[in-house]
Design goal:
Layout (H helix, E strand, L loop, with lengths): L6 E4 L5 E3 H13 L16 E10 L2 E11 L4 H13 L6 E5 L2 E4 L24 E6 L5 E13 L7 E6 L16 E3 H5 L5 E2 L1 H5 L8 E3 L14
Antiparallel strand pairs: 1-2, 1-9, 3-4, 3-8, 4-9, 5-6, 5-7, 7-8, 10-11, 10-12
The structure holds zinc ion (4 copies).
One zinc ion binds next to helix 1.
Length: 227
């Protein structure tokens, strides 16, 4: 599957930028105190300190997001947000690794793991890079970076989506002309392509029951993930 330029949309102003210039753009949008259109009465909320996080799929740079998370929020709300927007298929385990220590959804004492009920302010500071895994079997691995501490008039217990990549377009691996709408999990797991358009999926050797829909997530075509 070959894909083209990686654009994304700013959630605050709706404009489109490429991956590299989104960080600079958000500095402008955030400094201007811009709020997402859905927030009806931002004036009622006082700005609170948030971490501006950049999240990307470790093995596929096409998938990325910018998030604002209240500094006093627990790690668990980041886990819940990542699951909801990108990952959740059947309740797999997940864990963050921050400075060599693991914070897991179901901590195992034998492995000296902690839980996720820890405040971000105790763990993170600007410039820090850390990682996240969803599902220890068919793992989706993410990298996160703390870009800055900022002030946002946001909900204390919520993650705010500042920007994310637009859905990457892929051509069908079989006919090469139509856009792929299905992924054959069998072929994809063996790196044998498997991105198919509707007609090619219908006649695919592995059978249509092996196919999952193409979705805008690094977990596309993995396990039972359908978006
Ligand atoms: Zn913007
Ligand atoms: Zn699953
Ligand atoms: Zn095709
Ligand atoms: Zn197949």
């Amino acid at each position: 599957m070959s894909r083209r330029v990686l654009l994304g949309t700013c959630g605050l102003c709706g404009n489109i930028f490429n991956r590299a210039s989104m960080t600079r753009h958000l500095n402008t949008c955030i400094s201007a105190g811009r709020q997402p259109p859905a927030v009806s009465s931002p004036g009622k909320r006082l700005p609170i300190p948030v971490f501006h996080l950049f999240v990307e799929a470790r093995y596929d740079k096409a998938y990325w997001m910018h998030l604002a998370v209240p500094m006093e929020a627990h790690l668990g709300i980041v886990d819940a947000f990542l699951r909801q927007i990108w990952l959740e298929c059947c309740g797999h385990l997940s864990a963050f690794t921050i400075q060599g220590r693991r914070y897991a959804s179901a901590p195992m004492a034998d492995f000296q793991e902690s839980g996720m009920g820890v405040r971000l302010s105790r763990l993170l500071q600007p410039g820090m890079v850390f990682s996240y895994e969803y599902d220890y079997g068919s793992t989706t691995a993410l990298s996160l970076k703390v870009l800055a501490v900022r002030a946002r008039a946001t909900d204390r217990g919520a993650v705010e989506l500042l920007a994310r990549n637009d859905a990457p377009m892929a051509a069908c691996d079989q006919c090469g002309s139509q856009p792929a709408t299905m992924v054959c999990t069998e072929c994809a797991s063996e790196d044998q392509g498997g991105w198919l358009c509707e007609p090619c999926a219908d006649g695919h050797d592995c059978g249509t029951e092996m196919c999952l829909p193409v979705v805008n997530s690094p977990r596309v075509g993995v396990c039972g993930y359908t978006g």
